[in-house]
Structure formats: structure tokens, C-alpha cells
Amino acid sequence: MFLNQFLFLAAALFCIGIYGVLARRNGVLVLMSIELILNSVNINLVAFGAYHGHIAGQVFALFVIAVAAAEVGVGLAIVLLIYRNRRSIDVAEANLLKG
Amino acid sequence: MNALASIAGGVMAQGQPLTEGGEWIANVFFYVMAAVAIAAALKLVTTANVVHAALYLLVVLSAVAGTYIVLGAEFAAVTQILVYLGAIMVLLLFGVMLTRAKLGADEDLDHPQRWIGALVAIAMAAVMGYSTWEAFGDEKLVDHAPQNTQQVADEIFSTYIVPFEALSVLLLAALIGAVVVARRD
């Protein structure tokens, strides 16, 4: 097996996630696309861990999973707050900072 | 090299190269997982239904867990299923429910100027594809034993004990932060 097959899969998922973050207007869907990006990073970490025969890749993938859980918790809290204040989670409408 | 292939390719001593058949089966398993992951990810970013998007995310996450198994990272695969499919998916579905997402198709989910996003994604794919190809052309994954849970635990609780403790403080901070932000008062 080639190392590159894993790296290409991760790159594809990463780019699809980037598209999702940029193209979606629903806040929850943006969070889902961010999960996609974090997962592609994890594939890279585990693949390089296997490539070098070192356990650190898997350990850091586990750390990323834990950080992703924290990120989703805080992110959803913010989305809920936006919904409560604006009655909409359209990220294109969250433009109060624009002068 | 990995758990699945060592089962599939016949019994092998740890650290010995995969047999031809084992390698072939691992490859087939990987390509099936990769195809499923990419197809579901594309549906995830294009579907007009929020709940369907959550279910496609479930498929992507399971397929990624499958690729961890091909790589011999059993603990990461199991954690992926427990944390992502178990906890994060429920959290996201709660988000869908609490924000009163429209049931059924909703045409307003996409930004009108999404072609810019597509442009950025394609440019990114070109750069990343080219650079990984340049850097790791046809490097083979060396065959070695699966990285089992005991090794992971030994490493976390010796070399990486400080990041691990920092992570537990981060989780606590995120928990308190989420409660404070979302509290109704």
C-alpha cells in the first residue's frame, strides 16, 4: 500500500470540507463541514504514524478527536445563541460587525 | 502491517510483511472505504436537507474509522466510533432540533455565490495533490505490527502526559464555556 493513497483521501475530504464551510449558510452545516476537515487531518496523522512506525501519530489523532469534541460543544452553544438572538442561523446574516 | 489484513491474509508473525493476498484485500477494503467517504462527503456539502446531511456525516465518519483499521490504528478507530458517531453526532442532531431546522428540503442552505467556494476548494485540491505527489511519490507503507491499545496508553501516560492533562483542562473549560454561552437569562 502506498502512503499517498491515504494522503489523497485526506486531501479530498479536506477540500470538500473547505467547500462546505464556504458555501453553506446554515450554522450547523458549517460545523459539520469543520468536522470533515478535522477528520482529514486525523487520517494524515494516523497514516504518518503508520509510515514511520511511530505511535505518536495515533496519540495526536486521539488528541484531535478530543479537541473536536470541545469545539463542537462551544460551536453549537454559539450557534444556539445566534439563533436565540436573531431567529435564524444563517451565517450570511450574522453581519453585525460590518460597519 | 494491520489487523484486518493479518486476519484476511492468513496468520502472520508480527512485523513480517503482508502476504500478497493480505495486501490485496487491505487495498480493496481501503478503496471501498475511500469511495464511500468521498461520495458521502460530497452529498453532505450539497444536500438540501439538514438531517440528511447529519446522516451523511455519520457515513463519512464510519468510513474514516475503517481507514484507521486498515492502518492498524485500532484504538483510534474505536475512539472515532465512540466519540464521533456516539457523542458528536447526537450533539449535532440536538443542534438541528433546537434551531428548528426546516423538515424536508430547504433550498436556502447554500450561499448564492458558492462557486467561489468551489473555486477555492479546487485550487486547494490541486496544490495539495501536487505537493503530496511531489513529496511522497510512491513511498510504500512499511509493514509492521498494528499499534495496539497498550502501546497507545503507555505513550499517552508517559511521553505525552502534559498535553493529556492540558487537554482535560481544555475539555473542562469548553464545558463551562458552552454552559455559560448557551444559558438563558
Walkthrough of the structure:
The complex is a heterodimer of chains A (99) and B (185). By secondary structure, chain A is mainly α. Chain A has one domain (2-86): Helix Hairpins, CATH 1.10.287.3510. Chain A has helices at 3-23, 27-52, 56-86. The mean pLDDT of chain A is 92. Chain B has a single domain (2-146), classed as NADH-ubiquinone/plastoquinone oxidoreductase chain 6, subunit NuoJ (Four Helix Bundle (Hemerythrin (Met), subunit A), Up-down Bundle). Helices cover 71% and strands 0% of the residues of chain B. Chain B has 7 helices and no strands. In chain B, helix 3 runs antiparallel to helix 4 (74-98). Chain B is globular and about 60 Å long. The termini of chain B are far apart. Chains A and B meet through helix 1, helix 2 and helix 3 of A and helix 2, helix 3, helix 4, helix 5 and helix 6 of B.
What structural class do the secondary elements of chain B suggest? mainly alpha
> What's the assembly state of these chains?
heterodimer
Tally of strands of chain A = 0
Strand content of chain B: under 5%
How many DSSP H or I helices of chain B?
A: 7
Counting structural domains of chain B, the number is: 1
Task: Let me know the average pLDDT of chain B.
Answer: 86
Spans where pLDDT lies below 50 across 5 or more residues of chain B: 8-14
Name given to the CATH architecture of chain B? Up-down Bundle
**CATH fold node name of chain B:** Four Helix Bundle (Hemerythrin (Met), subunit A)
The CATH architecture of chain A comes to Orthogonal Bundle
